[in-house]
């Protein structure tokens, strides 16, 4: 049976040996078809895995916000011919807050084997380091852009953290990180704990948990245009 491999990629500039087991490299070398968010980034990643890979002999299918959703199913055509395919996200784990989920859904419907490979997940790594509840948590993706809607959503997530004893995890477009941070300080209760996880796995990594009232007295983290995970808990 043909296999769809979900291949995690680096979150930052850390060496591949820190986050990718040799088994992943062996799988990658065996593949000739890849579904990727950005071909240029994927080619660079594959060269980091093994400089001997003949990039020009590979076939890439680009899957991002510009992709015609009617075309996605056709990306799996090689699997019907016995070939295996790898999905590579821009950063971290494919199909988690990532368009690769659409491909995985189709592969499952068609009965293909889907194999997630071991690799870095900023969501889980931030949860591990936050000190929050790791037995009950929810990743809710992006919050609304509209300021009023975002404030309402933050309050709803905070209530859920208290009523369900559940960690709430979310992200933002990097250039809006500071704006969201300010909104949280204005909206959340002073005693609510907030974890800011910045640039995980890179030299600039910073994961800090404090109450909202403590954050108000602290220096604003340098989060502008930095990959960031936000977590709140009671």
From TrEMBL:
Q: Which GO terms describe its molecular function?
A: methyltransferase activity
Entry annotated with the keyword Lipid metabolism? no
Q: Does the keyword Transferase apply?
A: yes
Q: Which UniProt keywords apply?
A: Methyltransferase, Transferase
- For this chain's UniProt record, which GO biological process terms are given? methylation
Q: Which InterPro entries match?
A: 4pyrrol_Methylase_sf, 4pyrrole_Mease_sub1, 4pyrrole_Mease_sub2, rRNA_ssu_MeTfrase_I
**Record PANTHER family:** RIBOSOMAL RNA SMALL SUBUNIT METHYLTRANSFERASE I (PTHR46111), SAM-DEPENDENT METHYLTRANSFERASE (PTHR46111:SF2)
Q: What is this protein called?
A: SAM-dependent methyltransferase
């Amino acid at each position: 049976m043909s296999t769809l491999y979900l291949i995690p990629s680096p979150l930052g500039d850390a060496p591949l040996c820190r986050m990718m087991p040799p088994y992943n490299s062996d799988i990658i070398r065996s593949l000739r078809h890849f579904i990727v968010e950005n071909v240029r980034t994927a080619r660079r990643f594959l060269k980091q895995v093994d400089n001997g890979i003949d990039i020009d002999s590979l076939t890439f299918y680009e899957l991002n916000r510009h992709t015609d959703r009617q075309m996605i199913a056709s990306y799996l055509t090689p699997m019907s011919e016995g070939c295996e395919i790898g999905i590579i996200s821009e950063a971290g784990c494919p199909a988690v807050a990532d368009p690769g989920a659409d491909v995985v859904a189709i592969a499952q419907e068609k009965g293909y084997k889907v194999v997630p490979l071991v690799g870095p997940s900023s969501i889980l790594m931030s949860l591990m380091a936050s000190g929050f509840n790791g037995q009950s948590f929810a990743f809710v993706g992006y919050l609304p852009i509209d300021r009023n809607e975002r404030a309402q959503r933050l309050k709803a997530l905070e209530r859920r953290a208290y009523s369900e004893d559940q960690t709430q995890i979310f992200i933002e477009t990097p250039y809006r990180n500071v704006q969201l941070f300010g909104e949280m300080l204005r909206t959340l209760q002073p005693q609510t704990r907030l974890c800011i996880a910045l640039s995980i796995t890179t030299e600039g990594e910073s994961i800090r948990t404090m109450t909202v009232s403590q954050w108000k007295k602290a220096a604003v983290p340098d989060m502008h245009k930095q990959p960031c995970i936000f977590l709140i808990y009671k």
